[in-house]
Amino acid sequence: MKHLLALFGFYLFAQLAHAAPSINIGTVYDYLDGDKSTYLKRVFNGGDSTAFVKVNILEILYEADGTSREVPLKTQADGNARDGLMASPARLIVPANGMQGTRLLYMGERDRERYFRVRFVPVVPEKEDEFAVSSEDREDYKKSLSAGVTVLAGYGAVFFVRPKDMRFDSAIENDAGKYRIRNNGNTVVVIDEFKDCSIKNEQDCQPTTKHHILAGRTFQFEKQAGREYRFTLVEGESSKNIDVKG
Length: 246
Description:
By secondary structure, this protein is mainly beta. The chain has two domains: 19-161, Immunoglobulins (Immunoglobulin-like); 170-245, Immunoglobulin-like (Sandwich), CATH 2.60.40. The chain is 11% helix and 48% strand. Strands 2, 4, 5, 8, 10 and 11 form a six-stranded mixed β-sheet that branches. Strand 6 and strand 7 (82-88) form a beta hairpin. It is globular and about 70 Å long. The model is unreliable at 1-18 (pLDDT under 50).
């Protein structure tokens, strides 16, 4: 009897928990090239309830020691607009099993590369959230969600705004025991699908990783005998597969 009650409780919880939105923002790293000022970001809702999503943006500032901090955007000198990245619209109503898009618009100088954290946060709409829904619709939505078991999971993306005059210059040093790539350009370089595997046993691999080399920074790894390192070096629209043996 206890076993049946436990199964019933689990089934009921699963059914209630399922009655909620479930968003997906696609890629978590996005890049705005120097000749573009807008970027369309799509938000998908795979759940069975409407998703009310707020878009929040902070600027990421990287320190010389490699650490970073996130700060609110400032207003431009003329006071007419924010200095940095804006989302239009900043409030999305995404239907169940549907999709909506927001356009990320950059406003400001393009003499250097800048970085932003774009957060997509599902919420239960309140009057002050400025969603275009009536009070009755808001109350109905709250009642439709499963109180106490619904988890509204948000996601964050990192947005790279490249300078107007992009310049790629990756300097590679392949020493006996170490491999280095220094970014001498003025915009980010991507190390994609980095794999560290045994030459003799293809199943003996470390987890695949992705790395970003900011301008003026260096990516490096120690080479070990009997290991092979494979990755794709991505410089904007250009990419090159690289294979390094220890």
